[in-house]
Amino acid sequence: MTAFRTLDQADVKGKRVLVRVDLNVPMENGRVTDATRIERVLPTIREIAEKGGRVILLAHFGRPKGRDLKESLKHVAEAVSKHLGKTIAFADDCIGESAAQAVNALKDGDVLLLENTRFHAGEETNDPAFVQELAKLGDLYVNDAFSAAHRAHASTEGLARVLPSYAGRTMQQELDALTKGLEAPKRPVVAIVGGAKVSTKIDLLENLVAKVDALVIGGGMANTFVHATGLGIGKSLAEKDLAATAMRIIEKARASNCAIILPVDGVCAYEFKAGALNHTYGIDAIPEDQMILDVGSQSVERIAAAINDAATLVWNGPLGAFEIAPFDQGTVAAARHAAQRTKEGKLVSVAGGGDTVAALNHAGVADDFTYVSTAGGAFLEWLEGKSLPGVEALRA
Ligand code: AMP
């Protein structure tokens, strides 16, 4: 890397720097319940402030239809101050008089958060007039919100077209990791894809089989594949109408020399419930009145062997119903194995997507992977091979 302009090329001293960040944090009763996203944007804010730039943060929050104070960023500003260790200013609009006044009041090294960009319809339509209103407030633009980069919105894409623009440190780290994961990976590459459904991940599977050397399929979506190969899956979650799609993906994998690794056994129960009575069966002997809720131990062994053969791992989606014990065991065992190989310096491991982060945290290994992306939609679109407008706009 790097094909992107980064903070290394930006002269921020004395400049008004518009920084797009992801502050779409979970909140309850006005309190932030998970500050991961805040923590991730601190390095960029600190670096620009320490270099004497005037930091003007732009972010969206929730999905408001127009100005709706229930989705104000005011409380988030307090949380950012706390984590940053210094008070930041807040303006109750992201354009217009109040924003301009707040920006004019900034001294070098100060930080300001502007109100939710989605209070204006022009944000999501990427309206050039709204982009110009935002652009008036800054001299430079830095995008540190990879998780919003799959949207061509005013604050994620439009601004990068009208101001000198740069990737922030978190964006840069994410792009580096993604390049190592799939664009220019060390081979062999193995991908693990799990989760509930095939239907939400068809494009992703099609893209991966063309790029990786082996694809492990687990979770509920594996049931659809097992069914497609003609085996019984009892009462397991599956999309039987997608059998042809599953076969097409298997064919495409064969044509691309990508090995498909399906479960060879499954942990089965009569009901989807924590602690449900369970038993492991071979994949060709799943009882008609039970459902597969996790991959079995022989499947885990195969997955571990595939990880051992790989130099790079890309992971999205749990291998079983990891939220309900003991059906978390397959996911936990595979995650710990990948973490161990990573710690030994034998594997580059990149994981992402909503439930994946939760599953790796549950296994206690999120910090041991090479990189764990907290981006949901943007990470999935990248796995699908799509170009992300917010990233494209930063290309040098
Ligand atoms: P996704 O959002 O597509 O990544 O799916 C994640 C969800 O898939 C989690 O809530 C898991 O509980 C669920 N899941 C994984 N494996 C199974 C399975 N064998 N049966 C039912 N649900 C599953």
Entry keywords:
Rossmann fold; 396 residues; 17 strands; 6-stranded parallel beta sheet; 39% helix; 17% strand; alpha/beta; binds adenosine monophosphate; single chain
What this model shows, in words?
The protein has a 6-stranded parallel β-sheet, with helices on both faces. The protein has a 6-stranded parallel β-sheet with strand order 11-10-9-15-16-17, sandwiched between helices. By secondary structure, the chain is α/β, with parallel strands linked by helices. Helices cover 39% and strands 17% of the residues. It has helices at residues 36-50, 74-84, 96-104, 121-125, 128-135, 154-162, 169-183, 202-211, 219-228, 243-255, 297-309, 329-343, 354-363, 377-383, 389-392; strands at residues 16-20, 27-28, 31-32, 54-58, 89-91, 111-114, 140-143, 165-167, 189-193, 214-217, 259-261, 265-269, 278-282, 291-295, 312-316, 348-352, 371-373. The protein has 2 domains: 7-169, Phosphoglycerate kinase, N-terminal domain (Rossmann fold); 176-383, Rossmann fold (3-Layer(aba) Sandwich), CATH 3.40.50.1260. Helix 9 (219-228) crosses helix 10 (243-255). The N and C termini lie close together (11 Å). The structure holds adenosine monophosphate (AMP).
